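Example 3.2
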Amino acid sequence: MRRNGDRRMAGRRFRLVAIGVVAACAGTSAAGAAWAAPTVPLASPWKSAGTMHAARASGMEATLSNGTILIAGGVSNTTVLSSAEIYTPSKSGTGTWTTTGSLHAARQSAGTVTLLNGKVLVAGGKGTQNTILSTAELYDPTAGTWATTGGLSKPRNGLTATLLYNGKVLVAGGTDIGSPVDPLSSAELYDPSAGTWSPTGSMSTGRAFASATLLPSGKVLVAGGVVSSDGTLGKTAELYSPATGTWSSAGSMAAARDHQMSVLLIDSRVLVMGGQGSSGKPLASAELYTPSSNTWAAAASFSGGRTAAATDVNYSGRVLMAGGFGGNGNTILSSANIYTPNRNGGGWATTTALPEPRGHGMDVRLNNGKILFAGGWADNGSSISRNTAVTYLPSPNPTVTAPDFGTAGSTVKVTGGGFTPGEQIAVTFDQTTLTTATANSAGGFTVNVTIPADASVGGHILQARGQTSRRLAARWFGVTG
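Structure, written as tokens:
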């Protein structure tokens, strides 16, 4: 059961991501950085991350500037929630959950983005009594409270929300009615400085429950989704250009799909996985989009179809996909797979299963390299949601932590771990060395670096490379402007 087709399209899924690898030079990214997935055992343990104050599925999640995680709204069994809580990770142990201010409107599956000013924007989604919302709210981490902000021009559920390098938020598509889905082609831009929305160019096709990915070029890739009120799914994809406010074709996937998962890889390609297919069953196929050629190619398929899964790029250089719905779309899964990228289609392998099945949970990569998976549906039909949370620790786990965004010429704090104690670590920006650091007795380091003044607006690769261990942790860093 797909729970009315709801799938959160949160900003967390489309922000710039960080990954770590052991250097093996199996390929080269668009920014010229060597990358490879390490040849190490795939299995890593899941550990308890405590218990949320409310059981919830289809909620909204966002990473705050201090590294804590905001979880808000969602559905607790059959009740749509307005409550919110904060997860604080710990180096050892489960971490802690504390309550924070509640949303003004109970909602699930809203578009969610952490803004450059540190506040969190939630927009649209579905409220009580299946009402589709047009309202938007801002969470202030300092005050721990929510405030209303300008509303969308129309109600939207199944929308995508993407933070652009200029600090604005692009919301595209969705549906303004519940059943049947009526896909919208329109798009809107949120201006945080004014707290208002304005129209921008419309997509060529209406789309609901599509995927959206911010590319290093600054364009946004939107793919698939429900494209007709009769439930037809789309294969096509489109690119949004913030410079012109217009959309252009981005080719077509081999398979029509909605509710799929997508991530940006270190080589600038986009991996699209699973989702629901035209038959109504979850897909086991995956596809790769290459921005430089504007083309799609097959990626390796995984074992068993899957939709509404937790999906994150981890610090082992691989993509973790766990839980979700399988079978005919009504079986909640505990199994987990790892995708290893390479120059071609990559490959999948089984990793340690979740301690318990869950789908439509909230998932996010933590600064310590772990991946948090909280809540989600626990059953196959009686709408029981979970309050438990777990973390997944990749192995090996070199890390590099920095702000997701910054301006050219600015100074940013870079920290890392998982290196050999005493070794020299080179910190580079698009392969230009910014500074070196010495790993402490725990294998960690902290340095301040200056982003090159001539760095162009868009995505760049920030790396930390151990000169003895050859371990490499790399992340996308967005230069704003």
